[in-house]
Input
Amino acid sequence: MPSMIHRLQRIVQEVNRAPDIDSALVLITESLTVDLNADACTIFLAKKDDPDVMVLQACNGLNPDIIGKVELRKGEGLIGTIAARAEVFNLVDAPSHKTFLPVPESGETNFPVLLGVPVIAHRDVLGVISVQRAKNAFNEDEEAFLTTLAAQLATSIERAESQGRFSVQKATHTIKGVAGAPGMAIGEAMVLNRGVKLESVPDKKTGDIEAELHGFREAVRKVCDELTELAETMRAFMPEEECALFLAYAQMLSGGSLIDDTEKGIKAGNWAPSSWRDTIEQHAYVFEQMEDSYLAERANDIRDLGLRVLRKLMLEQSPYLDFPEKTILVGDEVTVTDLADVPADCLSGIVSAHGSSSSHVAILAHALGIPAVMGVPNLPVKQLDGVKLVVDGYSGSAFINPNRSILREYSRYLEEEAVIEQDLSGLKNVPAVTTDRHLVSLMVNTGLMSDYTPSLRSGAEGVGLYRTEFPFQVRDRFPSEEEQYLIYKNVLETFQGKPVVLRTLDVGGDKPLSYFPITEANPFLGWRGVRITLDHPEIFITQVRAMIRANIGINNLEILLPMISGKTELDESLVLIKRARDEIEEESGEKILLPKIGAMIEVPSAVYQIEDICKLVDFVSIGTNDLTQYLLAVDRNNENVADLYSSLHPAVLKAMQQIVQGAARSNTPVSVCGELAGDPLGVMALLGMGIDTLSMSVGSLLRAKKVIISFSQVELTDLLQQALAMSDAFAIRQMYATRLDERGLGGLIRAGK
Ligand code: PEP
Ligand code: MG
Output
């Protein structure tokens, strides 16, 4: 008998492979009847339009005519009670239970022993799975098995349901994620291929079957040649059996069913990548089914081979030379580098299955003024290529195949937004002063991509945060001192006369470097930011030297240190910065002043050491993105917990207040450079705290200014006191939003006026 984990895996895999929800449900009922030695199995699922009603969707061992006909409200009958209570029922005599309702013609009275478990995903009861027997109670192991399976299947069922429903290509479909970057767009979806994963290859038709076949054969031939060559070279280092694997791969590509099946798919009008994907999936599945673990492992070889050919196909075909005029980038995980692929004038919106508002891609979208919806569970990525989409980056929703009324509504919103933008553009040269004359300094965050024109035109008073990571991420090695020197000189010169805060390298976490791989179980708690650069002084010194050299004759540089978690890291960083300065002084024979140095306050321990930190630096800058993540223990990129992520959480507000008060004791200036600084509601809270320097995406600057000139500091101080007395983030957001609405500024945070 295969172990429980294998049986579970097998069922989940089968369900994930099923072409649609109905076949998935049939598979589950059949497998469970066998695996649990049951006489019958039923699955009820909640109705989409009325989730309080459960409908019988599949059954095995009972009269199949009742499928789709039995409906039970939550709380009604045994099944409805399991759904309402979200609990497992294990009964030896179901008909004698007080909630039992007989279903005539089902035949279930023959099977009084019943085990029923709710299927729950994201707190919603999606349905109930139950198994029944004529006799013999279900034991503890069986109960544990079904409960575990239901928990695992919940996500699969959720996905199968959403994709199944969506397969009606022309129907309007609403998807909900989190608000990634504000704004709206109407455009055409383009599914990304950069990540090159088999499962994210989109379905697509080809208009030129011959060309597609030719491209496929070429890709296969090239991979075959590479594999044969690889086997030859590896012979010197590897045992013969390992080298044989490459030859076996090559063999599989030189004819046979992998090739024939794919060509059949192409001849049926599909483009090569999806045809290849389907063939690989089917073949891998056959191996996975095998109980022999050695043979089951071969599924991985097939997938590995599949990926090799896919990469060739994707890299050598350029199917997207024609970008739709209004391109909405769609992907499982849209990345910062993906954005660089789309010409700036075509990029209109982003929809990503993973990530949240503080993912770096959302931050960049914000800077570019592109609306983004992030973290959409079960996004049917494969089916979206070329489909019309409406993206609402304010509410974090999008509409697939929007109907006429949605299009009309959003066209009107876009017109209204254009009016708001027009109104805002008149604020460029207006000082950011509250109605009771408190001046606020507005700076821009930049560096992810280096187009400084919008920042210069926005009326910003300088660069409050230059993220230096991007030039490191787009190369295949560390940039040299000279390369960095030119990049930094460019930004310092562009903003001459205004402060430019260059942050030292903050890679690790969700900002990997392809040429410096770090594998960690918890990257955000791991080797990141200053922790890496202190361990690699050669990287740190090179960067700081480039910064200080670039500053010669311009003198607007300030250096910011990321991820400072305590005084020691600061001490060590300062020693290295001074060393770099001394070296340059010696080399140039000129007196070089040390630039102002600041620390990011984004790790909770730094909040509690704020006074010690302030003694060592010229300024501090609060990184609300990470501070929120670390204080609330909520991964900033994880859509499963995105609802819990809020920089207006009372704990985050209290921590920030502590920073402001601690820094005030030494008169150390405090600025904020996380996303909260550009959120109109965040601006209200931060001003209430007495913070007067905000650095944000350029796209947020005029909106922030509009908020500043519309309120008095006295009013905002009072609002902050009310916020601090509240116990949850949602209520705080509501309170600020209501006040913004009352001022007629609701259009700054949502679609429409
Ligand atoms: C922050 O954490 O708030 C911040 C500004 O830095 P980053 O988003 O680059 O981590
Ligand atoms: Mg940070």
